[in-house]
Amino acid sequence: MNPIKLVDLKVQLASIRREIDSAIDNIFDRCDFILGSEVESFEEEFSRFCNVKYAVGCANGTDAIELALRALEIGEGDEVILPAMTYIATAAAVTLVGAKPVLVDVNWQTGLIDSSTIEDVITSSTKAIIVVHLYGQCADMDAVNNIANKHNLYVIEDAAQAHGAKLNGKRAGSMGVMGCFSFYPGKNLGAMGDGGMVTCSNKEIDKQLRLLRNLGSTKKYYHEVVGRNSRLDTMQAAILRIKLKYLDQWNNARTVHAEKYAEILSRCPGIELTNYHEGSVYHLYVIRHPQRVDLLARLHAENIEAAIHYPFAVHQLEAYRGLGYVNGSFPSSEYWASNCLTLPMYPELSSSDMERITSVINDFQSSKDNFD
Ligand SMILES: *Cc1c(COP(=O)(O)O)cnc(C)c1O
Is 272 helix (H, G, I), strand (E, B) or coil? Predict the structure, then answer.
C-alpha cells in the first residue's frame, strides 16, 4: 500500500511551484535576502488577513512569543500563566526571558486552557496569560480576556497552529494584546524554512517589536535598545505572500476533511472525537483512544503516518522537572498526553486515503470488540 503521510508538503508545493520559482528568481536578481520590501508587503498583507493594525516578521514562532514578552517588559521575577498541554515552545519563550511559567490544566473536551482554573494561580507577580490555540481551535478568549481585565494582565495568543482560525467572527491573532505565529513548514501557513510573526494593534508595541527583532534598531547602526537578531528572510516572506493567497481555501479543504473524519469516526465506538468549534482550521486532526499505542502501531503497519501531539504535558518534560509539579497535577493535560493520536491532515488529502485511514481504524476497533 502506498504511504499516507501525516502532512504532505510536496503536492501543495507542486500546485504553486511556478509562482514560487519566479518570486525567488526576482530575489536572486536583486540579491536582497534579509527583511526588505517583500517582508514589508507580507507584514502588511498578514496584518490585513488577521484584521489587526500591525504585524512584525521574525525568525520563528518561539521567537515571536519571546519578542511579545520582551515588548511588554516581562522578565526576571515575573510569572506567566499558560496551559500544561502545549508544545514546549510556549513555556520555553517564558523561561528564555527569565520569567516563570505557571501552568494550568486544559479542558477535558477541547484540550484548550481551562479558564476556570486561571484565577487560582494569579499572584502579585503574574503579568500575562498565554493562551494556545491548540490544533487550530481557538481558546475561550472572552473568558480569558475577562479574567485578564479584572486582574490587569496581558493576554498573548500562541496562534502557531491557528493561522486563519475564527472565533465569533474574529481571527486568531486579533483577540489578545499580541498574536504569535510560526511559519514552520508543516503549519497551516508554512515557509520553506523557519519564520514567525507577531500581530498587534498597538503602535507602541509594534515599534518595540520592530526594535527588538533587529538588535534594537530600525535604522542601520542606530541602536536604541539591546535586542535580538530575529529577522524574517526575504525569500521566506516572498514564499509566504504567495501561500497566504490560498490559505482560506486550504483551511476550507481541511474543514471538509475534518467533517468527513468526524462523520465516519463518530459511528466507531471507543474513539473519542475532539469537538472542534466552527471556525477551527484543523492544523492537526486529533482523536483520543485508550489503546492509542496499539492503534498507532496498526496504522503504521498499514503505511499510514499517524503521530502524537504531544506525548508529554509541559510539567512531564525533563526540561521542566524544575518547576516542581508532580504527576497528577494536571489530570486533563496528562490524559490528553497519554491518549491523543493525530491522523493525517492536509488540504490535499484525498478521499480514497481518508477512506483507507478510517477503515483501518474501524477494523482495529471491531477486532478489539470481538476479543473483549
Ligand atoms: C510550532 C509551535 C511553536 C513554535 O514555533 P517555531 O516556529 O517552531 O519556533 C509554538 N507554539 C506552538 C503551539 C507551536 O505549535
Answer: strand
Which of 94, 49, 51 lies closest to 74 in space, CA to CA?
94
Q: Is the pTM of this model over 0.70?
A: yes
Closest CA to 132 of 342, 283, 330: 283
d(CA 252, CA 248): 6
pLDDT of 366 reads: 87
CA of 93, closest atom in ligand 1: 10
Measured in angstroms, how far is the CA atom of residue 115 from the centroid of ligand 1? 22
Among protein residues, the one with the nearest Cα to ligand 1's atom 5 is 61
Q: Is 82 helix (H, G, I), strand (E, B) or coil?
A: strand
33-40 long-range contacts (CB < 8 A, ≥24 apart) are 33/233, 33/234, 33/235, 34/231, 34/233, 34/234, 35/214, 35/231, 35/232, 35/234, 36/234, 36/237, 38/234, 38/235, 38/237, 38/238, 38/241, 39/231, 39/232, 39/234, 39/237
**pLDDT confidence of residue 79:** 98
Q: Looking up cell 500581530, which residue turns up?
A: 199
DSSP 139: P
Per-residue model confidence as pLDDT tens digits over 169-223: 999 999 999 999 999 999 999 999 999 999 999 999 999 999 999 999 999 999 9
In tens, the pLDDT along 14-48 reads: 999 999 999 999 999 999 999 899 999 999 999 99
The band of 372, judged by pLDDT with boundaries at 50, 70 and 90, is low
User: Cβ(97)–Cβ(71) under 8 Å?
Assistant: no
Q: Do the Cβ atoms of 326 and 313 come closer than 8 Å?
A: no
Give the pocket of ligand 1 (CB within 6 Å): 60-62, 86-87, 89-90, 132, 158, 160-161, 182, 184, 194, 196
- Closest listed residue to residue 135, CA positions, set 353, 354, 343: 343
